[in-house]
Specification:
Elements (H helix, E strand, L loop, with lengths): L1 E6 L4 E8 L3 E9 L1 H4 L7 H23 L8 E7 L3 H18 L3 E5 H7 L12 E6 L4 E8 L2 E6 L6 H11 L6 H9 L24 H14 L3 H30 L3 E5 L6 H14 L2 E3 L10 H13 L23
Parallel strand pairs: 1-4, 4-5, 6-9, 9-10
Antiparallel strand pairs: 1-2, 2-3, 6-7, 7-8
Helix pairs in contact: 2-3, 4-10, 5-6, 5-7, 6-8, 7-8, 8-9
Length: about 325
């Protein structure tokens, strides 16, 4: 079964072809960072228009890369939510229309399920069950995963998602967009001993996250110590250390709570090297296995959507002849495949 995957949930247009027997055959990604750079964040209307321009040419590119014709595609998977509703509707309209035109089934994929299953694209893939830490610009979640569509939410953010906190902190430090990579680069020049940021919500039971307080702490630290280059680097280092340590503490609690020995790290923020190193240390200390996708599949991409769609189409799930998208879509509401 050869599945075309379409990802347009935010500001990246991702296309891929996944073969159930041969694996990933081709993938392409167009980033809109340059388009939104002057605005300091994603402008939804501009994102939607750019998806309209880029999706069809990228489909032609991945088909050529895969050595396939349109008639070789057996199904189409597209991201239907959560995300920016206009951007989602572009991918859903193109995906559902092409499926009808080509006479193949279509399936709507949950964006975070795509991220959650992205490590399955690697040679060493995790077996079910496992605990997943899903961290991105819009989500900070701990999930127990017992199978495809069998998800139990263990913890969620009560305010800013971690990627959003990175972006906001980068902005107050006068750094570029996107904020995560900018803070990470600056943090490498920071003194790890100068500032100690709090580890929010770790002094109370539970698995929920809160990152808005770290942003406020960074603002106050900057105001009290000046805005010279070294101070900014030291703040970036302390901020990143606090995020990584907080997540490691919550992951340890989730693994102890569930009794599981496998931890999956996924989502855009999973590319953060300090977070990876801290969770790898946790895995070594506790005798656990840590899994995460390669860097190109941490951010939004078509490969994860094609793979997740392949699993659901193989299980017999298809969409009716309608175009639907959801800006909000609880992960735990998905049906098992």
């Amino acid at each position: 079964m050869r599945i075309l995957g379409i990802e347009t949930s935010c500001d990246e247009t991702g296309l891929a072809v996944y073969d159930s027997e041969r694996g990933l055959l081709g993938h392409a990604l167009h980033s809109q960072i340059e388009l939104h750079l002057d605005y300091g964040g994603v402008v939804p209307e501009l994102a939607s228009r750019d998806h309209v321009r880029k999706t069809l040419p990228l489909i032609d590119r991945v088909l050529a890369q895969s050595g396939l014709a349109k008639t070789d595609i057996d199904g189409i998977a597209y991201t239907a939510g959560p995300g920016l509703i206009g951007a989602l509707l572009v991918g859903a309209a193109i995906g559902r229309s092409l499926a009808w035109t080509w006479g193949v089934p279509a399936v709507a994929v949950h964006h975070m399920e795509g991220h959650l299953l992205a490590p399955m694209l690697e040679a060493e893939a995790p077996d079910f069950p496992f605990v997943a830490l899903l961290v991105s610009g819009g989500h900070s979640m701990l999930v127990r995963v017992d199978g495809v569509g069998r998800y139990a939410l263990l913890g969620d953010t009560v305010d800013d998602a971690v990627g959003e906190a990175f972006d906001k902190t980068a902005k107050l430090l006068g750094l570029g967009y996107p904020g995560g990579p900018a803070i990470s680069r600056l943090a490498e020049q920071g003194d790890p001993e100068r500032f100690q940021f709090p580890r929010p919500m770790t002094n109370r039971p539970g698995l929920d996250f809160s990152f808005s307080g770290l942003k406020t702490f960074a603002v106050n630290t900057l105001a009290q110590n000046g805005d010279d280059a070294q101070t900014k680097a030291d703040i970036a280092r302390a901020f990143e250390e606090a995020v990584a340590e907080t997540m490691a503490i919550k992951c340890r609690r989730a693994l102890e709570h569930t009794g599981l020995k496998r931890l999956v790290l996924a989502g855009g923020v999973s590319a953060n090297r300090r977070l990876r190193r801290r969770l790898q240390r946790l895995a070594e200390e506790r005798g656990l296995r840590l899994y995460y996708p390669r860097a190109e599949f941490c951010t939004d991409n078509g490969a994860m959507i094609a793979y997740a769609g392949c699993l659901r189409l193989a299980a017999g799930q298809t969409e009716p002849l309608v175009i639907q998208a959801r800006a909000r879509w609880p992960l735990e509401s998905l049906t098992p495949a």
